[in-house]
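Why show two proteins at once? Because comparison is the fastest way to build intuition. When a single record is shown, students tend to memorize it. When two are placed side by side, the eye starts asking what differs. So, the first record is below.
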Amino acid sequence: MEDTILTIEEVANYLRVSDRTVYDWAQRGEIPAGKIGTVWRFKKSEVEKWVNDRLSSSDKRIKDDVMQVKNILAPNRVIFISQTSRHDALVELANTLSSAPQVKRSDELVSEILKREELMSTAIGRGIAIPHVRLSSVTDLVMAVGVCKTPVTDFHPIDDMPVSLLFMIAAAYNQHSYYLQTLSYFSAKLKKKELRDGLLNAATTDDVYKLLIEA
């Protein structure tokens, strides 16, 4: 299958940084890129891998005592999802996340989550996806979690493993550092097979919440 080619503007939109930042990264060789004439272009699969590698790198991880899951996740924002398509699963979880008081515009949240997913998959492998956005209509970082009762097959993850665990994060537009730290934290935590299996086998959403709080 032919790899999708992205422009600087598309990569900047996906990463929530300026066009200039992406240009500088490309110039310095910090992000995988190639030139067509004088114009930078980026392979979607290579950018996806670059993002996942950065999120998983040890120098990006934060200590357990810094990240308090209970500060960003409430029991009523942990749900079991029966949807079988990526679109429907994301909409259901986004609507759940919209119940948080930090989210002021549910329509924008749903729209931006879907738009971002169309640009590039947020599946990071091992049956996990972490859809995430930063919006000016969100006042503080907040999260919702979905356990898919039927694995969702159309997330197009790098390892081709259907997605069973969804961690959706919305942050204020000026929370770039905290946003990246949160992504890094969960990317690292969810590498543990025991935790993933525990979440998938949990009988109730309260059990899922407790596992995440205690992990």
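Second record. Ask yourself what differs from the first in the token line.
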Amino acid sequence: MPCMAWNTQDDRPVPWPRPLRVLHWLTVLCVVCAASLILLRDEVSGRALRMWLLEGHRHFGLLVLVLFAVRVVLRIRTARLPPIPMPRVMHLAAGATHIALYLLLLGMPLVGWAMSSAGDHDVHFFGLTLPRLVAPDDDLADRLQALHIDAAWVLLALVCLHIGAALFHHFGRRDGLLHRMWPRKGA
């Protein structure tokens, strides 16, 4: 098993650097807000309110894209922490899940943006009108909407798997993995 760097003060693994932990939880917040707004939109009437909820959904989706870019840059620049000792199959499953999550955090906002462009709708981000990714095309907009919805279901499944694995590590294996990403006072 690989060597483990433990924090001798509280007998837990060394946490991820604070900026990466903050970006993780900001991404969680933005994904939850984007999902909540679009689900709420389906439950309300009134064109103005529905448009406001859609714009909010788009803003949070684009924030996910921005946070993704910042996170990837920081992740590349951050030294690798020693891995938590676990069976190789668990390392491989965790790696595959994280890659899939990263691909979805990149792809879903881009597909949503392209879907809006194909539907001949401008995409605004904090007062800026973003360029269109594709030319207006109703058939393409429909295909991208189906892809966006399917990707959302896959994202939900992977998030549930990710949460379940973190809880398994915390309560089942008791290996301190959850403490690496959990917010901490003063760290």
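One difference worth noting in the second protein: The longest helix spans residues 138-173.
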